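Raw record, unedited: Laccase
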Amino acid sequence: MKLLTFWFALASAILVFSLASADTVEHTFTVQNKAITRLCNERVIVTVNGLYPGPTLEVREGDAVIIHVVNKSPYNITIHWHGIFQLFSAWADGPEYVTQCGIRPQHSYTYKFNVIKQEGTVWWHAHASVLRATVHGAFIIHPRSGKLPFPKPYKHVPIILGDWYDGNVVDIYEHVLAAGDVRVSDAFTINGLPGDLFNCSKQQTYKLKLRQGKTYLLRMINAAFNNNLFFKIANHKFTVVALDASYIEHYVTDVITIAPGQTADVLLKADQPIGSYYMAATPYVVGQPSPLFDNTTTRGLVVYEGYTASLRDSKPIMPLLPPFNATAIANAFFTNITGLVGAPHWVPVPLEVDERMLITISINLERCPKNGTCLGLFQQKFSASMNNESFTLPVGKGYSMLEASFYNVSGVYTTDFPDYPTQTFDFTSPKNALDLSRVFTTTKTTKVKKLKFNSTVEVVFQNTAILNAQSHPMHLHGFSFHILAQGFGNYDAARDRVKFNLVNPQIRNTIAVPAGGWAVIRFQANNPGMWFVHCHVDDHQLWGLNMAFEVESGPTDSTSLPPPPADLPKC
């Protein structure tokens, strides 16, 4: 308890100092439709300020951020600041129906929050409907001191890996959800461009110019809807220096594995002969091979200064990419990295645990409505669950979940999310993939787990083999967490607790729970609010692979959630 009090007092002192010396960064996001051409077709998409991807935000640690969102699109919109702690500002977190209701067409709302005790690359994206497909952008937090725990790079370069749906993504997913079906993307993208492997796309290939001998900081984001991605640049190696805005021991590799929602800060040294090289991204997909994933490759060009016209007859060098099911490569990247103890904003692992949970994460089926037409497996609808609870947002309840919590309104959600699965079985055995006694979810629910302020929470995410073992990128709003261990098979506390890294684990906000495996995270619930926990594969999130933590306010005004802003959008 004394250690906890010390860290909280230190954090409070840092907060006071940061705010005293902070700047205010203010922008306007105009959300609007725009017609653009990709894959030979003109499509109307939703953008911010007419840009796809959207504008890059740059702040310094400690800054106050004010974003005016003006909604000129035909859809309700909210913006989530993915990876921002929102310390004592949960009202600004953004997920629709969780912390606020949507900003309606022809309405506006202003997000206000402080960026405290974090630096590196995070991102922002829409958190209403499926609009994040095109409404997203980088959010770069520079150190207030200007000092980095690695040599200063020559330039910073956002690299946003995304995907493209050849149609109106809202209409596509309305059909998908109604029919309980699956729809895969038509292309992956690098900074919004599919690259020259796709029809009509030779001029829609991202180009990065390098000066030989210089080092560049790639600020990588996986904004794709549904896929982990491998990323390589021919003949070049990377030095990874941070993940999810948390510094790590430098990790040298020639391939980046990045799950949806994750970010990586990566040093790239221009140490190759002057020439042209491809960068490329391709999916990492586990489970049985299936037509239900986008098995395409996006690529861009890395061109050195001095690459003259006389050299242009030579073709760019293409990297050798891993096969789509290269679990060993993905697992090596996810597990071999350790945190940088003593780095700015490093937080030691809390050793005393107040709450322990084991949460199964599954793909399921939901029974097709009577007289309905469903296109999922066995003519049912696809669904998803955590501890066999398939989550639904409280649409039509009149309040967001956070408002209901603050005003003590009943009927919006319940606080009985189970700490453990209701059934124990061989979770990862392929024999259970089509066990009809387990494949169907119960009725949709809106359940949360209530936490005391400052309690320490340990969660085991246990993947299951129901329907198909898949990797699930689980994202926790409002916090970063320590990744203590991960592995394959069923988690066994007696066997696996000895594997916990309590010294220098990774600190992340999104963990790729391995297919047919488990991961253990631990965090301190020192931020009051309603914090969404969900799979960042959008299909699975829409099917119900979500829950929330309701963190109570602390004992003083300074540790309590303030009242909502007067202009918070109403349901």
